[in-house]
Amino acid sequence: MRGVLIGLFAVLGYGTSFGQSIGYNLSGGYIAEGYDVVAYFSNKAVEGKSTYVLSYKGAKYKFSTEANKTKFKADPAKYAPMYGGWCAYAMGDKGVKVTIDPETFQIIDGKIYLFYNSWGNNTKVSWNKEGAANLKKKADRNWAKIKYTK
Fold it and tell me: Whole-model pTM above 0.85?
C-alpha cells in the first residue's frame, strides 16, 4: 500500500502546483549559472564552489563560502533570484525566458534581478532606461503565466 501511495503522490505532483514544477534557468545545473546568490547582496558576482551546494524548491544553488550557504538556508526566499533566474528585462519586455550573464545583476527592494549581457546587448541598461518599475510589473504578470513552462 505504501508503494501505491508514493506512486500516486509522484503522479499527482505532490508538493508542486498542479503537478507542475517551475521552469528554472538551470544553465550549468544551477541557478545563476552557479554564482553565489548571497554574494550579490554584497554587490559582488562570485562563482560558487561545488563543496557548498543546497537545493531549494527544485533548484540547486552554489555558494562561495559556508557562511553564505548558512545565510541562504536561513532565508532562501530572500536570496532566490526573481523569475526563476531568467533575464528580468526579457520577462518584462516580451514575457520570454532568456538566459543571463550571472555577472549582470541588480538588487531592487531586496530581490535579485538577473540580466542578459552579451553581443553588445546589456539588458540591465535597457531595464533602467525604459523604467524598471513598469517593466517589473509586466515581468511579474508574465512570470505568473509562464513559470511552469520549460
Answer: yes
